[in-house]
Design a protein that fits this description.
The chain is mainly α. It has one domain. The relative contact order is 0.08.
């Protein structure tokens, strides 16, 4: 088996989702774990992933609060019957699209920029 960063990110996303301990939200958290892992891999910044995770948690708490205050009718604590299958299908679609997008990607080679211009710009 070829060892790739995506395989490592997928394994960590599964662990991330499993350790949250709620089976009904396993696939949405798996998808979130993939997004966070890919964000870290491509940005190299742990701060970006921390902000993304905090934003996700904040929006979830906000929606639960708004539901309890009867400001919205969207109950974040209950999933509709079809949401699991829609989530699985969406996750598979996103993973497939990411694979198609990145499979023929060329490695990034930085271009050296001359430190000083030969002639000053007008």
């Amino acid at each position: 088996m070829k060892k790739t960063p995506f395989a490592a990110i997928l394994i960590i996303a599964v662990i991330f989702s499993a350790f949250h301990g709620q089976l009904s939200g396993f696939f949405p958290r798996l998808f979130l774990g993939l997004l966070l892992g890919l964000a870290y891999y491509y940005s190299g910044s742990i701060w970006l992933t921390m902000i993304m995770h905090a934003l996700n948690n904040f929006l979830t708490v906000l929606m639960v609060y708004l539901f309890n205050a009867k400001i919205t009718t969207v109950d974040m604590t209950k999933l509709p019957d079809t949401s699991l299958w829609v989530g699985i299908g969406s996750g598979i679609t996103v993973i497939g699209l990411l694979y198609l997008f990145y499979k023929d990607r060329k490695p990034f080679i930085p271009v050296e920029v001359e430190k000083e211009l030969e002639e000053p710009l007008p």
